[in-house]
Amino acid sequence: MKIMKKTTLLVLLVVICACNKKVVELPEISHSDITEIQDVSAAYLFYDETQPDSVLLNRKNLISTTNWLVNIDKRLTLKQVIPYIKFLQEKKANAGHKNEHAKNYFTCHDTGRNNLGFVEFTEITYHSKEPINFISKISDIPTKYQIILNFNSKENIEILHFVHLEEIKTNLVGLKNYLKNISNSLNKDIELLVGFKETSSFQDYISNKSKLLKLDLENVTISKNEFIY
Question: What is the pTM assigned to this prediction?
């Protein structure tokens, strides 16, 4: 199956699961580097007020050897969706038939192209704790200088690092400038440990995640560990 570059606006705004006529309102991002994926199967996380946790998962058509497109309603919170995301990751990892090249993606509406876009999460490991509790256990990485980013909101990113014992709050524009200055003053690569509030909507999570991926700073990498608390 091939995701075509040209689709109708209806498909861009929603993904409809034909088996039960339910609708997923896709999260929106301004630009995606991934716009086309071949050999896919899909899972859906619906916003459903009739369910105890307002979430309904449909995964009937998933094939373990394909790339998985996970379509999540943007209105759901991280507290609601993360358990299902982890479940899908484990299901694929433990599948009897595997394809080492198959990856996992969140499906989005790329507003810049007015088309579908995708954000990969294949290697992401989700932790239900604050990154500050994690960094003390893996601080034996001497080659990298670790900085914690806590996304409290779009305009409130808490930055913590321990050499200078600093705690500052900024937005994404200020974050890029701040990281440039830190990178220029250090002789080590920087690794960002990123935390998100569990009450954040999936829309806010995807928006902030996609913007982080566009920082494109030399010597700065984003940890594959993410923290939802």
Answer: 0.86
